[in-house]
Amino acid sequence: MNLKFNNKKITGILTVLPENEIKFEDEIENYSFSTSQSMKLKLIMGYNKRRVVKENTTTSDLCVFGLNYLFEKKLLNKDEIDGLVLVTQSPDHFMPPTSHIIHGILNLKKDMVCMDINQGCSGYVIGLNQAFMLLEQEEINKVVLLNADTLSKKVSKYDRNNNPQIGDGAAITIVEKDISSSPIFSSVKVDGSGSDVLIIPAGGFKMPSTQETSILKKDDSGNLRSLNHLVMKGADVFNFVQREVPQIVEELLESAACSHNDIDYYMFHQPNKFMLKKLASKMGVPEEKMPNNIVENFGNSSGATIPMTITFNLGNKLLKESFFVCMSGFGVGLSWASLLMQLENLTFCEMINFK
Amino acid sequence: MDEKIISILNETRPEFDFSKSNNFITEGLLDSFDILTIVNSLDENFNISIDGLDILPENFSSVDSIKKLLIKNNVSL
After folding, report:
1. Chain A residues with beta carbon closer than 8 angstroms to that of B28
2. Does some domain include residue A330?
3. Average pLDDT, chain A
4. For residue A103, what is the domain's CATH number?
5. Are strands A8-17 and A20-23 parallel, antiparallel or unpaired?
6. Distance between CA A217 and CA A309 in Å, rounded?
7. In a domain, A206, yes or no
8. What is the per-residue pLDDT for A33?
9. Is any Cβ of chain A less than 8 angstroms from the Cβ of B44?
10. Secondary structure of residue B62 in the 3-state scheme
11. Could you report the predicted ipTM of this complex, rounded to two decimals?
12. Which end of chain B is more exposed for a tag (fewer CB within 10 A), N or C?
């Protein structure tokens, strides 16, 4: 489905990096594979180091820390927030919504829209679309989009397929009205028949977490995980991404009457280096236009990876320069979504460490 | 080309004798991550970029199937 938005812009992006850094080599012994096999994978997939939260740090902690930083630096005025949208798959609790917990901690005004969206790797584009839709309302002038996850808590440390790439993190994006902004084009797609391709089987209402669901079992590839852990059918996900992402981007370019030559950067979700290199090759895009350096530095933090890619690779450049950017998120659902927009003259574009 | 392919297979999983296998996948000689390692080696050794959509287990089940994939990528025999 194609979407188009006028008179909206992103005015600031902040990413919050968790406190713990884990090196790939430190965990090799957890995996039932030879060291040489694991080291080959390190090179190919870009496994290196990743940021994860401490046991007691939650999604709301990361978001509150980042928002307080913006308040203290006077980069955001809390009274101007008309909408707070949190995209996460690791809420503090099933109820209440984590966005409401954040609202309460920060003592935000009551006259506002506040909501959680359960989305993963396509969650940045989906969250931006939601923010743009809210800004269509007369009374809403500024929306704060939060993308945050602490999924490392749901990954088995004995699972070589997932553990080396999963990171935690949060991103805060300020979205506002602006009559001088150029149109924003987006496309979103979903295929619920693939809902079991990326899943945490136990822990919800259908299969509550029990002693039985926490038993570690070995899969065909020698990985140990329980039903409480994230499981991914890697080959299916890889194939889905290679099939659908180039297509959605082509369709989006066509609907926006643009070509690849118009795009300065492809800021894509960061599952691993290999997948992004293959995508760039298939799309005929130079690798320098599609950064793939997030997994090797911070890990894959679901919906926070696109803003992390922007802040890490462009940072302060976006305070003065202007870039036409194609974003694309893809994963759990299955869902995939892309967006074309001009990024320019941001008030802030930076990364901070959670303390 | 066969020697080069076998050499890449042996580098990936030195513990197996690929010459004795009829199907590297169903007999458990290669898993999905091994396939990625092999794709990376083939790309580098033959200066190609195997299409992501061709990274399917059936294309890596034997030396012949890998050879077909290389031919599809314009690698001459």
Report:
1. 220
2. yes
3. 96
4. 3.40.47.10
5. unpaired
6. 35
7. no
8. 79
9. no
10. coil
11. 0.87
12. C
Nearest to residue B51, comparing CAs of A167, A279, A276, A253?
Answer: A279
Number of Cβ within 10 Å of residue A99's Cβ equals 26
Q: Are A268 and A290 in contact (CB under 8 A)?
A: yes
The answer to whether A239 contacts B53, with C-beta atoms less than 8 Å apart, is yes
The answer as to whether A224 is a domain residue is no
Burial of A282 (0-12, 13-18, 19+ CB in 10 A): middle
Q: Which residues of A touch B (CB under 8 A)?
A: 37, 40-41, 44-45, 160-161, 220-221, 234-235, 238-239, 241-243, 274-275, 278-279, 281-282
Q: What is the pLDDT of residue B31?
A: 86
The answer to whether the Cβ–Cβ distance between B53 and A161 falls below 8 Å is no
The two tokens of residue A315 are: 């940072």
Q: Are A102 and A71 in contact (CB under 8 A)?
A: no
Asked if residue A208 is part of any domain, the answer here is no
Does position A162 have pLDDT exceeding 80, yes or no?
Answer: yes
> CB under 8 Å to A88, separation ≥6 — which residues?
A59, A98, A116, A117, A118, A123, A146, A147, A148, A149, A303
Chain B partners of A281 at a C-beta cutoff of 8 Å?
Answer: 49, 52
Q: What is the 3-state secondary structure (H, E, C) of chain A?
A: CEEEECCEEEEEEEEEECCEEEEHHHHHHHCCCCHHHHHHHHHHHCCCEEEECCCCCCHHHHHHHHHHHHHHCCCCCHHHCCEEEEECCCCCCCCCCHHHHHHHHHCCCCCCEEEEECCCCCHHHHHHHHHHHHCCCCCCCEEEEEEEECHHHHCCCCCCCCCCCECCEEEEEEEEECCCCCCEEEEEEECHHHCCCEECCCCCCCCCCCCCCCCCEECCCCCEECCCCCEECHHHHHHHHHHHHHHHHHHHHHHCCCCHHHCCEEEECCCCHHHHHHHHHHHCCCHHHCCCCCCCCCCECHHHHHHHHHHHHCCCHHHHCEEEEEEEEEECCCEEEEEEEEEECCCEEEEEECC
With CA atoms as reference, report the closest residue to A233 among A261, A196, A265, A264.
A196
Find the domain containing A46 and state its range: 1-198+229-355
**Total structural domains in chain A?**
1
Tens of pLDDT, residue by residue over B22-36, are: 899 999 899 888 899
